[in-house]
Every structure is written in structure tokens, then in C-alpha cells.
Amino acid sequence: MSAPAPTVASLARGLAEGQFSSVELTRAYLERIAAAQPSLNAFITVTGEAALKAAAEADAARAAGRAGRLTGVPIAHKDIFCTEGVLTTCGSKMLGNFVSPYDATIVSGLRAAGTVMLGKLNMDEFAMGSSNETSYFGPVRNPWDTQMVPGGSSGGSAASVAARIVPAATATDTGGSIRQPAALCGVTGIKPTYGRCSRYGMIAFASSLDQAGLITVSAEDAALLLGPMSGFDPRDSTSVDSPVPDYTATLGDSLQGLTIGLVREFFDKGLDAACEQRIRDAIAVYEKLGAKVREVSCPNLPLSVPTYYVVAPAECSSNLARFDGVRFGHRCDSPKNLLDLYCRSRGEGFGAEVKRRIMTGTYVLSAGYYDAYYLKAQRVRQLISADFARAFKECDLLVGPTTPTPAFRIGAKCDDPITMYLNDIYTIGANLAGLPGMSIPCGFVDGLPIGLQIVGPHFSEARMLNVAHRYQQETDWHLKTPSAFA
Amino acid sequence: MEWETVIGLEIHAQLATRSKIFSGSATAYGAEPNTQANLVDLGYPGVLPVLNGEAVRMAVRFGLAIGARIAPHSVFARKNYFYPDLPKGYQISQYELPVVAEGSLDVVLDDGTRKRVGITRAHLEEDAGKSLHEGMPGMSGIDLNRAGTPLIEIVSEPDMRSAKEAVAYMKKVHTLVRYLEICDGNMQEGSFRCDANVSVRPKGSDKFGTRAEIKNLNSFRFVEKAINYEVERQIELIESGGKVVQETRLYDPDKGETRSMRSKEEANDYRYFPDPDLLPLVIDDAFVATVKASLPELPDEKAARFVRDYGLSEYDAGVLTASRELGAFYEEVVRRVGRDPKLCANWVMGDLAAFLNKDNLEIEKSKVDAEALAGLVTRIVDATISGKIAKDVFEAMWATGESADAIIEQKGLRQITDTGAIETAIDEVMAKNPGQLADYRSGKDKLFGFFVGQVMKATGGKANPAQLNDLLRKKLSG
Lengths: 486, 478
Hints:
Low-confidence stretches of chain B: none
Mean pLDDT of chain B: 92
Helix content of chain A: 25-40%
Mean pLDDT of chain A: 96
Structural class of chain B: alpha+beta
Strand order of the largest sheet of chain B: 2-6-7-10-1-11-12-13-14
Oligomer: heterodimer
CATH class of the largest domain in chain A: Alpha Beta
CATH topology of the largest domain in chain A: Amidase signature (AS) enzymes
Number of strands of chain B: 16
Structural class of chain A: alpha/beta
Number of domains of chain A: 2
CATH architecture of the largest domain in chain A: Alpha-Beta Complex
Radius of gyration of chain B: 30 Å
Distance between the termini of chain B: 71 Å
Largest interface: A-B, 45 and 29 residues
Helix content of chain B: 25-40%
Distance between the termini of chain A: 12 Å
Largest sheet of chain A: 8 strands, mixed
């Protein structure tokens, strides 16, 4: 099969029309995955045999007249999602040997919709990172320039979709981990509203911020796949019991009368001038489509990075306590006693960035520091939410840059965590407020892709996808494919 | 110097839900290790807790029963510490905002005085698993069957002033949780246990002394002994110039002493924070009203009714309402006998209680049930047998399981109420004892008892005492 691989929508059409079978399609992608693995390192586990078996079942289902829209479409999962009987590492040595005994809810949802799992995608260790360099399984490389990072933590998801070695991938976003790599790899990413997709079976980093989502070629593909992963899950108390619309139904809606807000604080001095120009170009496209544009302000938004780096580490320090070498995961050799078991298992199993965040989180929750850090951060978080709520009284959606710069060089920011953290300055706000966010390709700077971020009010996914889709009808940035993988 | 003891208790009661507080695993006691622990209980990667509504209902029942405030909004928090039997590395509990706050319980002390003990709060939390050290040389085993079992932790004010008061309070809570059917109260299995905070201060002082916390006391006897030991230890320490340090201590029942476990400095910093996996617990008025409507008659209400309706003393009413089963047993006896509730009470609290105690049985397992005891009491009330004979009949009932009537028939214990027969016996005794008769008639009234005894002896104790007295008095006076 020839590259560039088409979209999920076109593959689904091809399967429905009998142009190719799911087995043929799956085999083709498995070949592309194998070919790209040495240069991209996007996969941690490829489940070729199981994929072909699932594809054959999909073909049989179709032959029996039981095919749904997505039956037989291959996808891959970020290795943060538990998959029964398959290695689930979360990018860590700690879980280097962990075969999950169960499926995450979104994994079973997408399987029930007929998708075929190709394997598990590389990621920053425990989703902590913005460059995919913290993975125990080595960095993922950006398909547009393999000297560059793909972004993180869903670097494997973004790189593999960008290189067209998978049609679509699941991902997660705690502070920008879907949108930032999507922007850096020139693909479409959606982080739904907190509570829209179940977190059951998604290995927790920061529970109040974590949200499952997708990285796809197009907004239409995201609309196709989002339905089966959304909805209330009785096993996740924070999932929200509200109806799931057919996200594809409203993709073509007119943008006449839409008011787009430009957050003043997103266009600060940290934003690269060339990147800003691409964003302004995209806004002009929206004006042409009939949208009104107005400037709005979220004055507390600049506090989002420090706020996030208190809340997220606090939660992770507790969430990662279960990795103690007792029941699963890495256990050190011949521990002398209990303390030795804990210290060496955790010391050996976790990488440097994970340790840094566990220590930060432990510190901010400690007696005497809780009020000054954790409690204060929670208050600022409420202020940031209130800023967004105010902004949405003046506009329907916010748009701006996803990242301040295009992809940076592998190794460039490894020694400077603060600079690394600032890469998520535009994305973290949506997580703190639980809002849905997207990133869509809107051009290139020096041959590297740039992302346009869209943030909407809670449960405005359908509107956001509509707005993204209409842009993609006017532009073809999302269809550009890196030459090495064309 | 005279010292005053100050005690506060933290009681842990396991809630009698069928499944765990945050997972669907069964809570039944005594299963093979780790057969009642699912992925949530094991703290597997990616799993999430889901609150068991039944545990909330039970906590609300308790709150209402102690006249507490039910929080419309309470929060689950994580208590972080590492231990192998704590799978997630944190315990889900409630910290700043508990579900139940500010209640109280009245306790009747041995001397009949009433004392009110304040209850600061009661919160929901999950139990940990168990570490097993026996039979595994050089290793420890972990059994996570208990992990995630729902607990309610009931924290009292430092209102108790002696070990006896502490035990009386703990017994009252024990009674209450079983009345409410929210805890089986089984202390051997650890379903009901407490930590005691103990301090001493010079009598008259209004400042608290430094306290020690004695952990994990699982019998009323241990609570009393441990507190008494600790009080003496602290007084001796202070009087010999030392200082009590704030610490956690363990009671060793074999040695009858408390030992230091860890000092305040060594104590964990639990880093409590709200659990982001669980939404705040919101309880509305309608739910509280529904739970309130379902409450059974509570011990204090029942005792007051026993005093009012059955004319019992407050003490007797307290004893008979110590458990719902005992109260029900007593009322069943009264209902069947149909009169003399005081006599019924004496039998339940007297012979029956003694035999239960001797055989170490609970009232539900009594070898003489309410119907059988009522049969016996009825025979006393209708004068078929005397109270004294009844004691023998009861013993036989206990041993054989037969009814009072059957035993009375078999052994021919029916009381003699035929005046002719009694008169004949009196005549015979009078004829046999002319000397005593003469003495009596010359004014030695005390010999009346002698004649009663002789006639009773002659009738095998079966003469109706009242009739005998009447007839004898007549005959003796000629």
C-alpha cells in the first residue's frame, strides 16, 4: 500500500467498499511500523500477531454484515493504557515487566467499535515530560527531522501518526501531552473535557488533570474515534454522566456568527515571531469563514506553569506510591529488609524526572508546606478557571498558539527542567480548568510544523471539532507528510 | 498530689457491608488469603476507587443515632505512608471534612450516675490488609482480604476520667453499632477495636497533660487494663521527676504493660490531601430523612420505655437493652407471660444470665428460649410451682431442653394448692411436735418458721407458700 496513508475516514470508506480487507490494511501498517522503528522508536510493543487475528475477525464480522463505521481500522494505544495480556510499561523500567491483567475502559470501547490494535506507543516515563526523552525505552524522534524531539509525553502517538505508520493513536494529556506533541509533529490532537473519557485503566500521573484523548491526521478522524471512547464509566467516579453526541454530525456546520477569542496572555514575549505569524494567518482563515475575532484576557494564566508544577507533582507523589516492588513491577534483587526493598526497587525503577516530581510533590504536601504550596496552588487554579469562565462569556472558543516555538533539538533542554516546563505554558491552563483543547496543524517554521490551539468551554468537543474541521477544509497543512515517510 | 485521668477513644468499627468501601470484593471474614482482593484492592496500575453507597448509609445511621450533624459535603483524603499491607501506598480516609460531626452518647456508670461523652467526629475510611509473620521464616506474608473493608472511625472528646468510664463508653458504642446493624461488633475478629489517648493532670487543673496513644485494643478488658497501667506509669514518671512524652504505645496483654512504639518525632507525616479520584461526598436532606425513618428503636429510647411500661428500674432497663437481642428476648417473655414484667426481668437477668455466662453463650444461642422461659414464669405466676422450685426446673430445662410443664409433670413438682392436703400435713406436723406447739401457743412466735419448714419438708416443698401460711396461722392459734 502506498504512502501517505490516508485518514481513518478514507480507510473506513475503503474497507466498507471492499477496496481492501482489514488484514491487508493491518499487514501494510505493520510493515511501515517495522520499517520506521529504527529511525523513530515510536513503539514500545508491536502486537502483530494479535493485530492480524483481530483484523481477520473484523473482516469476518464485515462479511457477516456486522460491521460498524470503524470495524477493521487499525490504531495504536499510548503505553499508558492497560491492555489485557499485553506489556503495559508507561515508558518506565518500573513496569518494564508488567503485563496488564485487564483492559482500560477506552481500550475496550475502541475494540468494541471494531478497531484493531497494532501495538503500544512510546511515551515519556509515566507521562512526565515534554520531549519524550524521559522514556526508559529511549527517545522518540520527530519524523520531520529526526534530530528533533516529537514533544511529549504522547511523543510516540504524535510521531507515528505524523509518519503515517498508524492511522490514529490514543494519547493522554495532563498538561499538554496531546496538544504539544501534536503541534510539534504537525498532526491533529484533541484533549476532551476532564471527565469525558474514563480514566479507568489509564495509569495515573495527576488524577485531577489526566485526560485521555486522540492524535489523528484530521479533525474528522478525531470525531469518528472520540465517540467510542467517551461516556460515563461506573468504574471512574470522575467520569461525567452526560450524553455523547455523534461528533461527526456537526463537523460541517457553518462558522457564521462564531466568536473567537484571542487570549492576550497567549501572545506574550515568549512566543516566537514566526510562529505568531502562522497563528495570525490561521485566524485570518477563520475570519474568512465568517467568525468574529476579539481579544480577551485571562490575567491569571501566566501563573499556570508554577501552579501545575505544584498540583501535578503532589498528586503523582501519591499515585506512584503503589510502585513499591511488592505486588507487581520492578523489584530489586535480594532485598535485605523492607526499607531496602522500597528504596532500591523505586530507586532503580524510576528515572530522574519521575524522581524529581515525586520529591517535589512530597515536599509540597509536607506538614508546614501544604498551605503555602498545595493549598495556594489550588486557589490559583480556581482563579484560572474563573478567568476562562469569564472569557467564555465574551466568546465561543479561544484560539492561539499551542507552543511558543517549533520542535527543539533532542538533548537541548534536558539539563534545564524549567525551560522544558515552559514549553507547556499555553496548554496547561486547559488542564487546570478541566477544559477541552485541540491542536491542529497551521503551517511550518523552518520546515517544522506549528500548531494552532483551540480551547472551548466544558463539553464543547463537537463545536471544537467542527471549527477544526472547517479550517482543515480550507487548508491542507494536516495532510502534509514528512518526506522521509511519504 | 491527687491526679486526674483524661481519656479519649478512637473506635474503629468495621461496617457490615457485603462488599468493600471502594471495590466490589466481598468483605466476609476468614477466607483464604488474597481470595477476596480484586485489582482495585491490590492497587493495580490504572484502577480507581468507587464509593460504596451502603457504607455511607451506615455512617449516616450512626451519625443520626448520636445526634450528630451529618455533613452535606464531606471529602475523602489520602493518608500517605508506605507499608506492605497498604497496597496503594495511601489509605483513603476523611480528614478535614468528615461525614459525621459533633454528636454525643450518654453512659450510665456503675453507681447509676449518667455521663455524657462528646463525639468529635466519625469518618469513613478503608482498612488495610494484614501482614503475616508466622510460619514464614525470614519472610512476611501479605493478606489483602481485609484491605478496603469499610471502617467508621469514631473519635470521642477527651471526656472520660477513668478506665471504667472509657469501658462504659466503648460498650455503649458497641451496643449502638449492633442496634444499628452497621457492625457485627466481633472484637476477636477485629471488627471493633480502639486506640486510647491517655494523659494525667493534677486534680483541678484545666490544662491537659501530654498524652500517649495506646494502639489497637481489641477487648474491653484490655482497654481497662491498658489504661490503668498507663495512668500509673505516667503518674509514677511525673512524680519521680520525669516527663511524659507524646508517643504511640502498644499494649502487651501477656505482660499487662504498655510499651513505646514510636515517638512524635518518629511519627509519619501523612501528607493528607483530598483524593482526586473521588468526588466530594454530597448528602442531601432527603437522604438523611430516609435513613432517619429507617432507624430502629435505640438503646436509650428502649430503656426509657422499659422503665415506663414495665416499671423496671433504670439499672435493670439498661441491662436488658444492652443488646437488641436481649431486649427482644425479654419482651417476648413478657408478652407470653402477660403479667409481672418485673418477675420476667429477674429471671432474664438472674438465672438465665448466669447460665448463659457459665456456658459462655450469647442470648441468641440460649438453651432455654423465650417461649420456654415464659412457660416457666407462667407456672410461677399461676402458682403451679414456687419460685424456689422454679430454679430447679430451670436447671433441668437448661440441661434437657424440655419445657417447664414436662419437667414439672415428670418430677411431680406441681405445687399443692388443695387446702385439704395442706391441712392434713399441718395436722400431722402439729401432732408430731406437741412441745413446740405448746411453746408457740404460749407466745414463742418465732416458732412459726419452724412449722412452715416442717410442713414444707413433709410436702416435698410443694405446698403453696401463701396458702400454707394462712392455714398454719389459723391452725396454730387453735
